[in-house]
Amino acid sequence: MSTIAYLTTYLSLIVFTAAVMIKIISYLKNPIHVRWELYPVAHEGKRAEYGGGYLEEVDWWKKPRNKSIIGELKVMIPEILFLKAVWENNRPLWYVTYPFHLGLYILIVFLSVLIIGAILQLTGIQVGTGSESAFASAVGALTNLAGPLGFLLCIAGAIGLFIKRLTDKSLKDYSSFGHFFNLLLFIIVMTIALITWLFVDSNFMMARDFIANLITFNFASIESSLFASQVIITVVLIAYIPLTHMAHFFMKYFLYHDIRWGDEPNIKTPETDAKIAVVLNYPVSWSADHIKGDGSRKTWAEIATFNPAATPEQEKE
Asked: Which of 47, 121, 155, 276 is 20 to 30 A (C-alpha) from 191?
């Protein structure tokens, strides 16, 4: 089982990386989206405070644009760390989804300090022995705190979300089998991780050794079959995440920066003009009179250049 654990980990990391890249490339290849024109736009700086934008300026197309990174961070950080939009718009859901997300954030910290600890061990600095340096001691202490806390928060949050989707009328219609399966998978994986910590690897020495072996491609024997099983199911979950709707953890970047805040003016931008030309030549499938009319207008370019208020005589001119 030891060899399987190592090989599955390498394969899962490859799948995870490939899935993330494929999703991003696939998104970037999509047709240009319709501008939402939603304000405020975070990078507008002070104008965002009252919902303004650069279009309100006289001769705006002649002036340089000044984007505020600070303005974007003021929106992004509270949203990422605290799920601010959920807190403001759906407080009952926040109480169960935030523990789940907070648990995931803590587990990212846990994995980071595990890797740091493994690297320290490879350089000859032991972690968790009681005689290590102050930095190594801090790494070990943070690892021992973040691991169990992350497991528990994820379990509690996933159970809460599972029950919420079963009982909340506003969520039931939008809950598929995949939602419940994913939550159940997290519950199972985190429960196994918690049991492994309680009975097999209470100071995460096995976990650090395993990561150190991964880094050096050393397929050393894993003494505990429970630990090996935990590794396999955990890395499979990691590989699975970007293949599902949970990919929103990185695709949200495009939702905010490209769709919600994408307000680049189309001035002397041949690349954008080419994308618009592609979309304008799509066939029209709408049957409403004010769109397709008598069926003579076959593409969106024809729709865009047609004046529905014009008389038949004006159309001929």
From this structure: 121
Q: What pTM does this model have?
A: 0.87
Query: Token pair of 113, please?
Result: 């300090």
* Residue showing tokens 């949203």: 79
187 occurs within a structural domain: yes
Could you tell me if 119 and 23 lie in one domain? yes
Q: H helices within the chain, ranges in order? A: 2-28, 69-82, 84-89, 91-122, 134-167, 169-172, 177-199, 205-216, 225-240, 248-254, 270-280, 300-304, 312-316
Nearest to 237 by CA among 3, 19, 34: 19
CA distance 285 to 121: 63
Which residue range forms the structural domain that includes residue 285?
Answer: 281-316
The answer on 294 and 145 residing in a single domain is no
Number of domains into which the chain is organized? 2
CA distances from 241 to 73, 154, 216, 234, 235 (A): 26, 15, 26, 11, 10
For residue 39, tell me if it sits in a domain. no
Tell me the pLDDT tens digit for each residue of 95-131. Answer: 999 999 999 999 999 999 999 999 999 998 888 766 6
